[in-house]
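INFO  loader      accepted 1 record
INFO  loader      residues=340
INFO  predictor   begin
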Amino acid sequence: MSPAEPATPSAPDTPRTMRAVVLDAPGPVTNLHVRDLPVPQPPDGWLRIRVEAFGLNRSELHTRLGFAGDAVTYPRVLGIEATGTVDHDPTGTFARGQQVMTMMGGMGRSFDGGYARYTCVPVGQVIPFTSDLPWQILGAVPEMLQTAYGSLTVGLDARPGQSLLVRGGTSSVGMAAAVLGKRLGMTVLSTTRNPAKADALAAIGVDHVLIDDGDVARQVRDLLPDGVDGAIELVGTPTLPDTLRATRVHGTVCFTGMLSNEWTVRDFYPIAYLPSGVRLTGYGGEAENLPADVLQAYLDDVAAGRAVVPVDRVFDLDHVRDAHALMESGDASGKLVVLP
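INFO  predictor   done
INFO  writer      dumping tokens
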């Protein structure tokens, strides 16, 4: 299932087997199975991480539902991110015990990912950090922060004093984007379809919580007649036209997520689809898009109470099916984290 062939562990306290979540084939949550597997050995240029926590992501839901196509072979250990400590680094880049995060790069698709006690990844996609925060908080951060930070910087080139619309605001990325936007000095507007989730957005500092009735553009322009400076689209193509209409001339919409599981526009005719002068970009990042100093500063701010990590619920490995079912339902507000 992985390019990392099982071998004798390099440290005497590293076990020979581990528990992992294996997806046998695309389908329902019952296709996820907790099994004992050999602890993998890192090939050249890779290292092994002892996973202390991992977050769940829509990408893994898409893989489980069969949307990944030929990009994934089965059986497969899912997981596009992991947080833990270095267990074995043959390259000598990191000391054993160094706290690290990793994400993307083919994890959980072209090779086995983070839904396991140990995972092997290329050294180049490992980000070191130091923190006393609990693992259930740290485990929520990697992909969530990378995606939110990249959407704001690469996707929108956001600036202090600008206004930001987050479409899909109670998703983990949406909440992280709101937190980062406020730290940057932006006025943040976030949407939710569920009025019961409004308090969760207000609690992280969102300036204007908008109940998504399908016409968010009208609500935005009631507050900001010219429209927002930038918007992050996390719901997908069904809401994208309305998000574009909520954005000012020379403003930018960054298409980042697809909570709706819809990501293509049929018969796309730009002149008819895009409001005049509104820019549309996209973001899909890798570990290299999250600098180590940005990660460390964010964790330090969380530890000092200046920022929050929006965690909805924490599961153990035996309840990963429940976690996936909750993610699929869309009822969570924030990140779902599993402790292996």
